[in-house]
Design brief:
By secondary structure, the chain is mainly α. The protein has helices at residues 13-21, 25-46, 50-67, 77-94, 107-111, 116-133, 138-149, 154-161, 165-185.
Length: 199
């Protein structure tokens, strides 16, 4: 659902990435487990193939392992990692023929301690949202995913997607207009978003 995302602890990410750069496998495992579900969810929104999503995720983590020393501390570690994922996802999409996009949550992501009725309702809402997101361009979908599911600011999204902040705002503006009927039907249409008008 498009509620506030659960913000994970990231304050020791710089230490982890420094240790990964020194080829510390324990640090890499810790980083891997910290990002596995978040990256899978993000990639699955952009790539209409579970198999390719898994392949791209592995590719992203390989890049993190091989290039951790290149992290320059000008942004959060998570922003750097999601930037790699975004680039890899768009390249992967270019290799796919047009197919319906949008994957439902996996069982372990969906349950989260909820009862069966809650899970069923949330799964249905997520499927509806996935269909709505599938009508957006990959660029618009990425902005929606990073804003609502990952809790990123427009500045961070600009860094991840390598686009000007005003372009990010414009993509969000058009995405929200396109999704407005669906969000209203789901009772999510009144959620405020900063600076909705395109710059």
């Amino acid at each position: 659902m498009m509620g506030g995302p659960t913000m994970l602890r990231e304050d020791d990410d710089p230490d982890l990435i420094r240790r990964v750069a020194a080829k510390d496998r324990r640090a890499f495992e810790a980083l891997y487990h910290r990002y596995v579900h978040r990256l899978h969810r993000y990639l699955s929104r952009l790539i209409p193939s579970p198999e390719l999503t898994e392949e791209v995720f592995d590719d992203v983590m390989l890049v993190v392992w091989q290039n951790a020393a290149r992290y320059n501390q000008t942004s959060r570690v998570s922003t750097w990692i999601f930037g790699i994922a975004h680039h890899k996802a768009l390249k992967a999409r270019g290799r796919l023929a047009s197919r319906p996009a949008g994957m439902p949550l996996s069982d372990d992501e969906a349950t989260g301690g909820e009862g069966p009725e809650d899970v069923t309702m949330r799964g249905e809402i997520d499927r509806l949202l996935a269909r709505g997101l599938a009508t957006l361009s990959p660029e618009q979908r990425a902005v929606v995913e990073l804003t609502f599911y990952q809790g990123r600011s427009y500045q961070e999204i600009a860094e991840i997607t390598h686009a000007p902040v005003n372009t990010v705002k414009t993509r969000m503006f058009h995405a929200r207009r396109r999704l407005a009927p669906l969000l209203t039907a789901l009772g999510l249409g009144r959620r405020p978003a900063p600076e909705e008008k395109p710059g």
